[in-house]
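so i finally got all the pieces together for this one. its two components total, 660 residues if u count the protein bits. some of the lines might not be protein, just check the labels. i wanna see the whole assembly predicted at once instead of chain by chain like last time, that was a mess tbh
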Amino acid sequence: MMFLDRMKTLYGYRNLIWTLAWGEFKQRYKNSVLGYFWSLLEPLLMLVVLYVVFSNLMRIQVEYYQLFLLLGIILWNFLSRATSMGLNAILGKPGMVQKIYFPREILVISSCITALLMSIFESLVFIAFMAVFQVPLSANLVYVPLILVLLFLVSLGLSLALAALNVFYRDVQFIWAVILQAGFFATPILYPVTIFPESLRDIFLLNPMAHIIISARDTIIYSTPAAAGSLLYAGIVSAITLIIGYIIFAHYEPRFAEEM
Amino acid sequence: MSVIDVEHVEKVFRIPHEKRTTIFEALTGLLRPTDYETFPALRDVTFSVEEGEMLGIIGENGSGKSTLLKILAGIMRPTSGKVSVNRRMTPFLELGVGFNPDFTAIENIRTYATIMGLSKREINGKVDEILAFAGLETFRDAKLKNFSSGMQVRLAFSTAIQTNPEILLMDEVLAVGDMEFQQKCMDVLNRYRNEGVTIVFVSHDLGSVRRFCDRTLLLNHGEQVALGETDEVIDRYIYGRIAEEPVEIGDPVEEAPPAEEASSGNGRVKITGVTFLNKFGAESSRFNAFDPMTIRIFYSARERVVDPVFGIALYSERGEHLYGTNTELKDVSIEYITGEGHIDLQIDRIPMLAGRFLVTVAAHTHSGERYDWQDKAYSFDVIPTGRDAGLFDIPCLWRR
């Protein structure tokens, strides 16, 4: 009941959420002359470096390895960007927190939406690659929205917790940067999880991001339906993340204005 | 019907001795209990605001006014007590919240208006009006960072007043800007008041509070000192505890000893202190303009001094000599004085409008030989009650 009330309140603020998200998105690109172009270049450069290193040195044999890699990078980039921006969503806007009232989670939600807009933009590169490699599309693409929703919810849950904790413990941002860095290599972005023996594989698959990225690859690149187990697992973990994140956020929220 | 109810609200800030702002510190500090000071910002504040009423909140800096306003706005939570607000509330705690220097005037209007709770359609219909009111039509697409601070404030204000509040919280917003801008603010405030908007107004400008507020709340160190008719509460603020402790006659009040160099004379009569008494007979250093005032000069004569003259001179804060008089000029003769005593100068109506005034007191002989002379050693403040400008009131009338 309380949850529904909260959702209703937030829905009433949808205009504000969108205005803040869009404003932030525009600002990110306005300051450089090449603007939007740079943001396309970033994943491309990353792709080139990682592709050269991993396809030659590690001799990873994967069909459409460029696409495999690029999709992983874009999805991981979303999580990384959403949480890094969400981390500062409260602390970075002292004027809004101390001088006016609206539900504070709006700041976190809108920063995640900004990250989403940036990722959607980045995925133009991916779509271009798909066309170049003439990857066949299939009906399995219907899974994609669901997968993206799960990814968004995980990111939002983490962002809520991080944004609140960062107000009280200023080293959270540094710790989180390290965790993200480690996560990039611990998640099957550069390699397929099948390079590991069965027993080790299960440990990697505890990570919901692994399921999200694998499902996305299956449906988008390899024209296979997403594994129901993967989606279920990712769904449960993202719901739990969101709930715990929100509880942490709600616990600290009343003292934001004093602590900043 | 009351639209804001505040019941026994307390706010205590905890100020830790060593602030733990990192996880590392929090972990290493787990074993040691945290030492902290508590600072009570608000203590047992209870009041309610009726629909359509304008309530003023006054008090010294640090008395808890802004904290109270933030609690009303929902920005902070009270430590204990209850606040209920039954109408749509718009806080004007700061103008231009969320302004982004990299965006154009139009973009900032849209963002700020959204933050202030306007719908998209309302905003679209009002953009031109906002720009016109701010006088910035030609700068629609200029970036905010190229605006002067005055232009930014005008833009923020014009946008903020487009909201249709049912309850308005105002905190010192009016303290910025030039005369013309302040006048605009006052006009808008008046418009809202006439439209029946409930307003909570925090200000140091007692003149505005007196002019607009139906009732006023006085806070002192977080305590609710007085709540009631604005005039009475402002008197209470300016004159302190009303008439509870009238100064006992003949009791020389300890003033800061005047600086040596400012005092000169042969010392046969010493001026031991000067106090300013308000209309309640209590000592004060602040006075409403046009109120009565008594200047009491305490003296001490080592021996019997025959026919002394007491005088005072009044200076503005910048040192301009405004007025001077003495007992001789007023044809008052004092036969003799001996020992301790005091003499009063009674002023029926303070003609000054506002500001700080310095007082020189002197005791001398008719021939001008000084017993004691204390140059600008005392001062008092005059708090404006009207809106006339300048230093002095000149009784006058407009006719045509």
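The two ends of chain A are 31 Å apart (CA to CA).
Chain A has one domain: 2-259.
anyway lmk what u think
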